[in-house]
Specification:
The longest helix has 20 residues. Helices cover 48% and strands 14% of the residues. It folds into 2 domains: 220 residues, 2-enoyl-CoA Hydratase, Chain A, domain 1, CATH 3.90.226.10; 48 residues, Orthogonal Bundle (Lyase 2-enoyl-coa Hydratase, Chain  A, domain 2). It is globular and about 65 Å long. The protein has 12 helices and 9 strands. Strand 2, helix 2 and strand 3 form a beta-alpha-beta unit. It has 287 residues and is an alpha/beta fold.
Length: 287
């Protein structure tokens, strides 16, 4: 057991100095002055920030790595130049896909799905700040996030059908119905039409809408609020929000009982109690 603990500790590391190659990565401090909030900016504004084979892979690897981060408590995803993400790059992805064999295509579709899996598995809450175009794989990155803030100009489209593909892509057929309902999801996936910002907010896709110039700061403010909370407990919440989709009610209640008992052993739980007794605001440290 001690060897396992040492191995896990060996993998723990800070991500404040991570150097991204295919998007921008920056880290800001929380209200207590600690590096805590990681911001991913998709940065190809001339093409509305499409993804490439390389950016898919690096995003997947970054979210996988954040499981071991010692400093990142929340993550914000956004796009440069007034758009979020236009999906897979037509010339750098879609064109080459038409020349690939079935095993090669399956390698690609599994890789894109692995990005969503990595986002759901990393313990940090993820907030997408979405302006302008949010389409295809970009819409899936938004959907895989824990929370989404949009603008009145945001146009979201799961447009796989427009390029002759199924709406079943990167988990869309399981994630989207749970977010907005089966009938609404079916319409969007069969037609590929744009979901307006107003529809997105009414249907529960967006947590809130903000002016274009304010959406990123609103996302970072929310990220800061969450980062100052009990981050170990946040990780437990995220894990169970994901796992309980496949549980019955009795199984889910038991899983939550076990999880909460573990959280009650943390120092943050004791800090909250001591702060309440002293009539102070608790300062959580994530342990």
């Amino acid at each position: 057991m001690s060897d396992v603990k040492l191995t896990m500790a060996h993998h723990k590391r800070p991500f404040a100095n991570y150097e991204a190659k295919h998007f921008l990565w920056s880290v800001s401090n929380d209200a207590q002055g600690r590096p805590s909030i990681g911001t991913i900016t998709l940065n190809r504004p001339d093409k509305k920030n499409p993804l490439t084979f390389d950016s898919y892979a690096e995003l997947r690897d970054l979210f996988r790595g954040l499981v071991y981060a010692t400093d990142i408590k929340t993550v914000v995803v956004t796009g440069a130049g007034g758009n979020f993400c236009s999906g897979g790059d037509v010339h750098e992805i879609i064109g080459p896909l038409t020349q690939m064999s079935v095993p090669e295509l399956l390698d690609f579709t599994r890789m894109t799905g692995d990005l969503v899996k990595a986002m759901r598995a990393c313990p940090q809450p993820i907030i997408s700040a979405i302006d302008g175009i949010c389409a295809g794989a970009g819409a899936m990155v938004a959907l895989a996030s824990d929370m989404r803030l949009g603008t009145p100009q945001t146009k979201t489209a799961f447009l796989f059908v427009r390029v002759g593909l199924a709406g079943a892509d990167m988990g869309a057929c399981t994630l989207l119905p749970r977010m907005i309902g089966q009938g609404r999801a079916s319409e969007l996936l069969y037609t590929g039409r744009v979901m307006t910002a107003e529809e997105g907010q009414q249907w529960g896709f967006f947590n809130a809408l903000h002016d274009g110039g304010a959406v990123l700061s609103a996302a970072q403010t929310l990220a800061d609020q969450i980062a100052c909370g009990p981050t170990f407990a946040h990780g437990v919440t995220k894990k169970l929000l994901h796992q309980e989709w496949n549980m019955g009610v009795d199984e889910a209640i038991e899983a939550e009982a076990e999880a909460q008992a573990i959280c009650m052993q943390t120092k943050d739980f004791r800090r909250a109690y001591d702060a309440f007794v002293a009539k102070q605001k608790p300062v959580f440290k994530g342990d």
